[in-house]
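Structure first, sequence second, as always.
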């Protein structure tokens, strides 16, 4: 995720057998890409021609084509939702030729299933993320019911694949969006503590950030994976905090609990720094790393808290966990950035290193307490915040940073459109008190024991 950028490259010929209905998008997109923000030069064109057919990154229009082709090949298992549009210089409010597409797999309409997303190409020059997202979606559809891990996911959870979140950046081979903003610094959580520059003029200033946020609030994901490249690790919440103590250096948004000047974030999130949910994330991160190292024959793929690697303020992962309670794993697939110049064979290598790890991580979606929130009439209550709290006096957290004791451990989630909620917690971490609160102040509460397994916990709201 370190700073990196290079000149825009014009893409090659786009024309191939496109799916019906794509013609207008593709025609418009060709027009825009050929007159993109930073433009292409004659030298770029020569560079592209020299590289011949060896590009491992598909042109943006080929990605769109591949998304529609998947839905066309598996009409009963996949459909395409346009969740928004990326910005361009000509269309700052959304360019019709730069749709942000989500592949929704079978089960995504069933609100009783936990929802997960896989997001690629937030940084436009990390195109390998789009490839991995597309390949995994296809593998899952092709394996339905065959007894493999991939085949078992459909019907067990709601899966959304968003191969390209930053379509302008992808097309231009740029890290940033059209306005020069790093989308993974633009989200509102701890945004103000980030270094000035590519984080944008205000939190959530970018169209692509808002599209991603709106989709997450609509889908109420219980797990998210964002795919990056440029390094070789999986990073866990949080990005803006370290687990180890250290001095606030006052320059780069470097904060940790208890430091002088620690920002006055909400107490519930402050408490969640010590949540046993972190133990779940660390277990999943370790399992992921072991799987990749085993498949790739390496020992260097690591699992780390984001902030222990380096501090990032305004990341998507922190926003998702802090605001919606959804854990977000950031996977750095490979040390390379420039996928337009990598050998095609490398694509398959990266895919095979991560496939099992990604499928297993997706398969963990919904681990924890889940249930449903109902109104007094018995109808489902959507958008209720369900908070699980426990008072612990022993150091049951695995965090390196000691928690103040006793500490109120907290984890939460919002109910979806049908009232279902999923709070990420490890088994064996109870007992918990659950409290549901609707936006109009109706409350419900009950005690539960996470040790008893993920039994459905129904909460019935009543007016105070
Ligand atoms: Zn990145």
């Amino acid at each position: 995720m370190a700073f990196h950028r290079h000149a825009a490259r014009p893409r090659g010929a786009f024309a191939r057998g496109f799916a019906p209905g794509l013609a207008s998008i593709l025609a418009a997109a060709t027009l825009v890409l050929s007159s993109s923000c930073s433009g292409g030069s004659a030298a770029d064109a020569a560079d592209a021609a020299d590289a011949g057919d060896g590009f491992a990154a598909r042109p943006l229009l080929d990605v769109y084509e591949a998304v529609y082709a998947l839905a066309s090949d598996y009409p009963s298992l996949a459909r395409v939702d346009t969740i928004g549009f990326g910005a361009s210089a000509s269309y700052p409010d959304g360019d019709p030729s730069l749709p942000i597409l989500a592949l929704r797999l079978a089960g995504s309409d069933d609100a009783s299933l936990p929802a997960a997303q896989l997001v690629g190409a937030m940084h436009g020059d990390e195109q390998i993320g789009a490839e991995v997202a597309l390949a995994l979606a296809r593998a899952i559809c092709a394996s339905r019911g065959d007894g493999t891990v991939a085949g078992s996911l459909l019907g067990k959870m709601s899966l959304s694949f968003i191969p390209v979140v930053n379509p302008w950046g992808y097309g231009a081979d740029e890290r940033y969006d059209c306005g020069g903003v790093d989308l993974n610094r633009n989200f509102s959580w701890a945004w103000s503590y980030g270094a000035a520059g590519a984080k944008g003029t205000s939190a959530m200033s970018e169209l692509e950030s808002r599209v991603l946020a709106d989709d997450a609030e609509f889908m109420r994901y219980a797990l998210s994976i964002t795919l990056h490249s440029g390094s070789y690790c999986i990073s866990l919440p949080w990005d803006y905090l370290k687990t180890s103590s250290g001095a606030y250096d006052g320059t780069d948004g470097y904060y940790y609990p208890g430091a002088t000047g620690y920002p006055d974030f909400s107490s519930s999130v402050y408490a969640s720094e010590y949540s046993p949910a972190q133990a779940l994330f660390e277990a999943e991160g370790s399992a992921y790393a072991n799987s990749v190292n085993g498949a790739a024959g390496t020992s260097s793929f690591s699992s780390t808290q984001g902030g222990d690697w380096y501090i990032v303020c305004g990341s998507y992962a922190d926003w998702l966990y802090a605001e919606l309670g959804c854990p977000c794993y950031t996977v750095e697939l490979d040390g390379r950035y420039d996928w337009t110049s990598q050998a095609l064979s490398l694509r398959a290598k990266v895919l095979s290193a991560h496939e099992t790890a990604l499928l297993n991580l997706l398969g963990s979606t919904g681990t924890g307490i889940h249930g449903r929130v109902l109104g007094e009439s018995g109808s489902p209550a959507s958008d209720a915040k369900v908070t699980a709290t426990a008072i612990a006096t022993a150091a049951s957290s695995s965090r390196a940073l000691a928690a103040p004791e006793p500490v109120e451990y907290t984890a939460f989630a919002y109910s979806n459109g049908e009232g279902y909620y999923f709070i990420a917690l490890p088994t064996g971490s109870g007992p918990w008190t659950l409290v549901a609160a609707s936006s109009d102040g109706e409350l419900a509460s009950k005690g539960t024991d996470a040790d008893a397994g993920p039994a459905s916990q129904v909460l019935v709201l009543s007016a105070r």
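Margin note: The pocket of zinc ion is lined by residues 1, 123, 126, 228, 230 (CB under 6 Å).
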